Amino acid sequence: MNGERIRLARKRAGLSLRDLADKMQGIVSAQAIGKYERGEMAPGSEVSLALSKALGVSMYYLSAPQQVELGKLEFRIKANTSTKDRARVETEVLEWVERYLQIEEILGEGGGWTAPDGMRRRINSLDEAEDLAEELRHYWDLGIDPIVNMTELLEDAGIKTLLADLPEKVSGFTCLLKAGTGEQEIPVIVVNRGQTLERRRFNMAHELGHRVIHPESAGNMEKLCHRFAGAFLVNRRHLMKEVGQRRSALGVREILDLKHHYRVSAAALLLRLEQTGILSRRFLQKAFRTFARQWRSAEPEPLEDAEGKQSREEEPRRFERLVYRAAAEDMISLSKAVELLRAPLADVERGLRGVAH
């Protein structure tokens, strides 16, 4: 039993030691739970099961045989985010990564981070952030064309990508996880499912910036990652090819068509036009005072409808594919597939056989 996991799950549930003991109907004292968390005592099977039920997490999570540990998390969140919110995010990420590693181990399909050794570096300006985005595009052989599926790109590069139901205050974060007793580090990017597809794509690119921009770089890290994200999603040379090197103005229809072409928000597209020197700052300021004044709060012509019916193409698919592959080849049981996917049996049967029995 992993004491740190008990503590994290308790914080996630917003329970004190005394509250948790009461919720377990007094089968163990608050003092004993404190000792479990500090690793001074180990609970028996009955107490472990009671802890699991009271905390709403699996026994597998509490026992943590994979020994996955979170590195330092850099949350892009509001300052008043609660300890409970943070613990909830950490718990969800740990559970998900452990299930991911289980299926990779079964299939022998572990993927590694494929950024070049010298990519993570200190930079000193927004222009260098732009250059770094172009360099990474070149390394991944992406050319200058728009990126159709940002999520798939990250997964193919060996970055574990999670779309999670996070608190509204949490935009996203990136971290390195340590797995097992070796030195393996697993890069993870988490973004908030509750945000628009445009924002999710930008957040993924922003968090990718945190993976390649050294934290000791000069200047504001968030601004550097924002510039990196804009340059990565909307390549300067491609944008100039589409609209020209210098424009005095663009009409709303042209801006919205470009937004769909690059699959970014209309506001981000406008900012990118100014960053590249195509539009002047004066025009940008005028746009946000007039026709674009609502674009930061309400996305015009969104990429997905109100129910998110068009967003499945941008959801992480690799973990699910690996589970169904293992089930189809009888490497895991149907019940194991249900456990890994955290999905209803009927849904998993339908995904495997096309019909629920």
Key traits:
357 residues, 17 helices, elongated
Mind explaining what this structure looks like?
This protein has helices at residues 3-13, 17-23, 30-38, 45-55, 59-63, 83-107, 126-139, 150-156, 197-212, 221-233, 236-243, 252-262, 266-275, 281-289, 318-328, 334-341, 345-353; strands at 69-70, 160-164, 172-178, 185-192. The protein starts with a helix and ends with a helix. The model has no long low-confidence stretch (mean pLDDT 86). It has 357 residues and is an alpha+beta fold. The protein is built from 17 helices and 4 strands. β3 (172-178) and β4 (185-192) form a beta hairpin. 33% of the residues are buried. 52% of the residues lie in helices and 6% in strands. It has a 4-stranded mixed sheet, with helices on both faces. The longest helix is centred in the first third of the chain and has 25 residues, at 83-107.
Oligomer class:
single chain
Give the termini distance in whole angstroms: 37 Å
Beta-strand percentage range: 5-15%
The string of secondary-structure elements, in order, is HHHHHEHHHEEEHHHHHHHHH
Integer-rounded radius of gyration: 23 Å
Low-confidence stretches: none
How helix-rich are the residues, as a percent range? 40-55%
Strand arrangement within the widest β-sheet reads 1-3-4-2
What is the average per-residue confidence, as pLDDT, rounded to a whole number? 86
Task: Give a quick account of the main beta sheet: strands, pairing sense, barrel closure.
Answer: 4 strands, mixed
Q: Note the total helix count.
A: 17
Number of strands: 4
Shape: elongated
Give me the secondary-structure category: alpha+beta
